[in-house]
């Protein structure tokens, strides 16, 4: 390993392009001195931390003057402590301060080195001629002398490191007879480069290092952040103001001309920024002043009116807000026209879409998306109001909304309509409205068939369409609550990457928000949301994401909604009586309601199922686009051949985890459909393939031609038909293999069971492939697919008998009205389970988990359940009430006749322990971080219903016990307002299962719980 001197030289030389003895301008020498003082300051802080960790008190964003002041104070402290002998750190500090003093007073104009530094770095000139040369030479000698002092101090030191979760190795300088641990002020990165702390005012500390490109790097880790927060100054005014200065740098970076640097200068609680704004006409020099007002409000000085205005008004003016809204509106009008044109092109729809019903939505936490029956539905405008209110807050965590719903329910149209309406509202907004009541923009980004692999690429493309925003400007406006980012089809946009690294796909933007802002994500597949949640839970310890999640579930139309829609098109709802029950259910989806209207108008209603009507019409229109040349009107591919092509494409997309295929894949799919190796047998076919209207073509800079289904439902239905084709050929191994590769969506699974329920049930009963025998990446999809198919079979056949189901995942299983006999669910997971089963006999549950168990209010008894062993129930909805406390759930299940152990009546201690167990279980299962106020440990977010379910005293006592037993760390977080901390539980599984052997913190925690007399409310 390199020596300490070598690592230091590597970093110092990054300031000196021609080395220590090379010629450079005075600005370079002063920048190098700034670094040298920083390095010595960090060594001083490390020595003080070694002696008294609570005495370090380093500034969070120290500068030139702060370094000198800190070193003087540090020298006094170190000399005043009872050290065995003078430490070399003391001697280094004393020599450095003496060297700085030597240059002071040598220049008659500037006096001190700090005054010279401030003069130069605020854009002021130097004297010319000999005076310039003399000043430059004095500064150069000082820089060289400081370098010699530091190298002399480091001479003979070896580097010893310990890996840390932050990615920054803990560093110790070790000489033959002494040592100094420099962590967390000076560390080594994974490549062994020395990293020196520069600031910690935002959500993560920043370090300087030598690198070809990234010389300033942010990192995080709980131990690192706890150590820094203990060592750095914690005064609120320091944190708030310095945080504002750092945010100004980041915010203005998106608007500045790249040829001109930003120069912030703070004095007397104000900061003045000298900078150049990038305009279409060139770079415009600006001077802007900012300060912190009452209640930590960020303010900007409007020199024209001599008034202090909210900072957001400043950003609106920079962005030319009304013009931004107009350009966004123009872009969204074009998007809306494309959607309508695509429907007409692919399906021949002629009806307008202005009369579609405003969708209803249920908004819950991510954990409660399947279970929370207490949440009321709201119109989509209610969701918009919630987003607006969130953006008005300076919150501690970025909020991410996942908009989900069945294919065809109208996710894309809901987002486009909301964004378009908002842009129009902002266009006509009166600027006299108070700043905090003005509306944020909804910035719509979509997947258009290409898999960019990067959200940045997609947003940059959308910004180009609006012509006056860029990627960094969008980040600035999002971070400051002026824009909510709407991302449609995020999983398709990222391709397979979105599934493999679900959390990582959003994390760069979450990090860029700095704990603020709102991102709204619509994913085509529920699998993406499942993977995202799984990755959050799995990576809770390592990932440092300041984010809170909400799930907005779009709801199908109600009967009254559908009746009104049909009547608006002159159709009597009584015609629905002739439809099959599955088609009646599909009419709750706007897409199929429109299919039905078009079918009735064309006289095709009742001739086939609604999905078949869609596909047959689609295939007929597509085949007519592939006509032979030479005046012939015959299609090159018949509808049946085109169907086979699309089935092969859908199967390939499922296998690849993507929603786009290349032209060569399309050609292979046609070969498979025709059973031909050479497509030249159909002259002209190869040349005409790219005009398939149901497929969108993207020809980017790479000239790679990509094809994707125009609507997500086509993918779902053709994938179902691909499965059915293999099933009907008795290729059962192929069907099972397909079930392991991607999670089927509702439309796919429903079509398969509706078409071949008996054959699917036979396949599942004969299937011997166990999820545990599959690669880890395929187990989750396989379990969910088997659960989905069994749930649909039970609903379709109204019976479920003589089967043991093991290790399956059921998003929802409704057994009401189903005859059940001799069925065992072993190790199964249920999102929502509805009972009672009709005439149930010998129904058994073993070692499973049920997020929500639903019983009709009139059910007083559950007959036929012979075993309910080792099964956890998080929520029970029964007897007209919601039960969430473990003892209440157990008593109610016992009352309903389930074979569960009786609940002991052991008084307050057992009640408190029961509450603690429930809270620990929530920590296990919930993906979001838990944030509490530092002053009283009460929940610091607005999603805390579960945290206070047992009363505030139980909660705060629980958190204290976790902290005091060292079973959890309370990690300080940077946020506006009162100080907050993130609760990181370290031994969650051991705590929950009371595994106290060889685990002192866990044993200590449960000892505290056992002796506690707090009674849950």
Detailed description of the structure:
With 1017 residues, the protein is α/β, with parallel strands linked by helices. 45% of the residues lie in helices and 19% in strands. Helix 2 packs parallel to helix 6 (129-154) and helix 26 (712-728) runs parallel beside helix 28 (746-766). Mean pLDDT is 84; it is low at 496-500 and 693-703.
Task: Give a quick summary of the entry.
The chain has 34 helices and 34 strands. The chain is an alpha/beta fold. Strands 1, 2, 3, 4, 5, 6 and 7 form a seven-stranded antiparallel β-sheet that branches. Strands 14-13-19-15-18-17-16 form a seven-stranded mixed β-sheet, sandwiched between helices. A five-stranded antiparallel β-sheet has the order 8-9-10-11-12.
How many helical stretches? Answer: 34
The total strand number stands at: 34
Shape: globular
Low-pLDDT residue spans: 496-500, 693-703
* Secondary structure: helix percent: 40-55%
The major beta sheet can be summarized as: 7 strands, antiparallel
Strand-helix topology:
Blueprint: H1 4-13, H2 26-51, H3 64-80, H4 88-103, H5 113-121, H6 129-154, E1 158-162, E2 169-174, E3 179-181, E4 186-188, E5 194-199, E6 206-208, E7 216-218, H7 222-231, H8 236-253, E8 263-267, E9 270-279, E10 282-292, E11 298-302, E12 307-310, H9 311-319, H10 321-347, E13 360-365, E14 378-379, H11 380-392, E15 398-404, H12 411-427, E16 441-446, H13 455-466, H14 471-479, E17 483-488, H15 490-494, H16 497-500, H17 502-513, E18 518-522, H18 526-538, E19 547-555, H19 559-568, H20 581-586, H21 590-602, H22 610-623, H23 639-656, E20 661-662, H24 663-674, H25 685-688, E21 695-699, E22 705-709, H26 712-728, H27 732-739, H28 746-766, H29 776-797, E23 799-806, E24 809-814, E25 819-826, E26 829-834, E27 838-846, E28 849-854, E29 865-869, E30 872-878, E31 881-883, H30 886-895, H31 908-925, E32 930-933, H32 952-964, E33 968-973, E34 980-985, H33 988-992, H34 1000-1010
Helix pairs in contact: 2-3, 2-4, 2-6, 3-4, 4-6, 8-14, 9-10, 10-12, 21-22, 22-23, 23-24, 23-26, 26-27, 26-28, 28-29
């Amino acid at each position: 390993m390199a020596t300490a001197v070598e690592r230091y030289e590597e970093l110092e030389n990054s300031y000196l392009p021609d080395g220590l003895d090379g010629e450079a301008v005075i600005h370079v020498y002063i920048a190098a001195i700034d670094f040298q003082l920083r390095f010595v300051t960090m060594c001083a802080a490390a020595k003080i931390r070694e002696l008294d960790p609570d005495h370090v008190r380093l500034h969070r964003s120290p500068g030139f003057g702060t370094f000198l002041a800190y070193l003087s104070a540090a020298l006094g402290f170190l000399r005043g402590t009872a050290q065995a002998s003078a430490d070399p750190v003391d001697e280094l500090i004393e020599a450095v301060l003496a060297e700085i003093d030597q240059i002071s007073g040598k220049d008659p104009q500037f006096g001190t080195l700090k005054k010279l530094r401030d003069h130069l770095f605020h854009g002021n000139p130097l004297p010319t001629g000999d005076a310039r040369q003399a000043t430059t030479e004095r500064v150069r000698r000082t820089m060289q002398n400081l370098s010699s002092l530091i190298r002399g101090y480091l001479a003979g030191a070896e580097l010893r490191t310990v890996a840390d979760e932050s990615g920054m190795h803990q560093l110790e300088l070790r000489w033959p007879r002494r040592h100094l641990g420099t962590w967390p002020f000076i560390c080594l990165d994974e490549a062994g480069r020395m990293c020196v702390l520069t600031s910690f005012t935002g959500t993560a500390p920043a370090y300087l290092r030598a690198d070809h490109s990234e010389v300033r790097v942010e990192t995080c880790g709980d131990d690192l952040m706890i150590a820094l927060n203990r060592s750095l100054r914690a005064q609120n005014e320091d944190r708030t103001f310095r945080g504002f200065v750092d945010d100004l740098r980041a915010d203005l970076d998106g608007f500045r001309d790249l040829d001109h640097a930003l120069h912030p200068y703070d004095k007397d609680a104000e900061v003045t920024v000298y900078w150049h704004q990038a305009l279409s006409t060139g770079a415009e020099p600006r001077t802007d002043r900012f300060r912190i007002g009452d209640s930590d409000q960020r303010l900007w000085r409007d020199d024209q009116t001599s008034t202090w205005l909210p900072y957001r008004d400043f950003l609106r003016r920079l962005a030319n807000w009304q013009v931004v809204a107009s350009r966004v509106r123009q872009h969204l009008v074009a998007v809306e026209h494309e959607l309508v044109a695509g429907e007409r092109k692919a399906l021949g729809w002629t009806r307008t879409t202005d009369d579609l019903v405003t969708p209803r939505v249920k908004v819950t936490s991510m954990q409660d998306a399947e279970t929370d029956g207490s949440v009321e539905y709201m119109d989509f405008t209610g969701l918009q109001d919630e987003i607006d209110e969130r953006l008005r807050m300076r919150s501690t965590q970025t909020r991410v909304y996942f908009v989900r719903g069945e294919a065809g329910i109208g996710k894309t149209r809901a987002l486009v309509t909301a964004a378009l309406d908002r842009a129009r509202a902002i266009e006509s907004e009166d600027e006299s409205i108070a700043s905090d009541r003005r509306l944020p923009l909804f910035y719509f980004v979509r997947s258009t068939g290409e898999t960019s692999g990067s959200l940045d690429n997609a947003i940059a493309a959308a910004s180009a369409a609006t012509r006056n925003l860029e990627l960094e400007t969008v980040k600035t406006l999002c971070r400051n609550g002026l824009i909510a980012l709407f991302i449609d089809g995020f999983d398709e946009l990222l391709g397979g990457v979105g599934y493999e690294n679900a959390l990582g796909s959003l994390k760069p933007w979450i990090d860029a928000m700095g704990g603020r802002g709102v991102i709204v994500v619509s994913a085509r597949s529920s699998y993406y949301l499942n993977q995202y949640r799984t990755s959050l839970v799995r990576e809770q310890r390592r990932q440092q994401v300041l984010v809170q999640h909400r799930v907005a579930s779009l709801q199908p139309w109600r009967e009254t909604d559908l009746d009104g829609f049909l009547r608006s098109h002159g159709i009597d709802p009584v015609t629905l009586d002739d439809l099959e029950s599955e088609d009646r259910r599909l009419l709750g989806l706007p897409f199929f309601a429109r299919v039905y209207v078009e079918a009735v108008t064309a006289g095709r209603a009742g001739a086939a199922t609604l999905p078949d009507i869609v596909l047959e019409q689609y295939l007929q229109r597509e085949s007519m686009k592939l006509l032979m040349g030479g005046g012939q009107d015959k299609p090159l591919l018949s509808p049946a051949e085109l169907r086979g092509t699309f089935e092969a494409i859908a199967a390939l997309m499922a296998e690849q985890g993507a929603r786009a295929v290349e032209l060569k894949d399309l050609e292979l799919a046609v070969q498979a459909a025709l059973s031909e190796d050479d497509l030249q047998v159909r002259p002209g076919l190869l040349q005409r393939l790219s005009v398939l209207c149901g497929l969108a073509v993207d020809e980017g800079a790479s000239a790679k031609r990509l094809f994707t289904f125009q609507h997500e439902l086509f993918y779902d239905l053709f994938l179902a038909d691909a499965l059915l084709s293999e099933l009907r050929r008795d290729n059962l191994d192929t069907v099972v293999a397909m079930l392991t590769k991607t999670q089927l969506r509702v439309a796919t699974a429903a079509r398969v069971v509706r078409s071949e329920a008996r054959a699917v049930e036979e396949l599942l009963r004969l299937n011997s492939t166990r999820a545990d025998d599959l690669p880890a990446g395929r187990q989750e999809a396989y379990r969910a697919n088997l659960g989905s198919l069994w749930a649909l079979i039970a609903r379709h056949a109204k019976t479920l008998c003589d089967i043991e189901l093991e290790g399956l995942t059921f998003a929802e299983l409704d057994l009401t009205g189903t005859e059940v006999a001799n069925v065992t669910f072993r190790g199964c997971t249920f999102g929502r389970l509805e009972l009672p089963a009709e005439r149930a006999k010998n129904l058994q549950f073993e070692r499973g988990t049920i997020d929500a168990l639903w019983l009709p209010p009139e059910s007083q008894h559950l007959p036929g359940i012979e075993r309910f062993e080792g099964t956890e129930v998080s929520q029970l909805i029964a007897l007209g009430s919601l039960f969430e406390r473990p003892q209440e759930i157990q008593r109610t299940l016992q009352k309903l006749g389930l074979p569960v152990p009786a609940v002991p009546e052991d008084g307050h201690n057992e009640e408190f322990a029961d509450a603690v167990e429930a809270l620990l279980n929530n920590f296990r299962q919930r993906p979001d971080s838990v944030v509490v106020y530092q002053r009283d440990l009460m929940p610091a977010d607005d999603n805390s219903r579960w945290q206070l379910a047992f009363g505030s005293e139980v909660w705060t006592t629980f958190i204290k016990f976790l902290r005091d037993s060292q079973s959890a760390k309370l990690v300080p977080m940077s946020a506006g307002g009162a100080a907050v901390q993130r609760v990181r539980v370290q031994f969650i599984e051991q705590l929950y299962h009371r595994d106290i052997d060889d685990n002192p913190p866990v044993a200590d925690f449960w000892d505290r719980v056992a002796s506690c007399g707090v009674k849950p409310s």
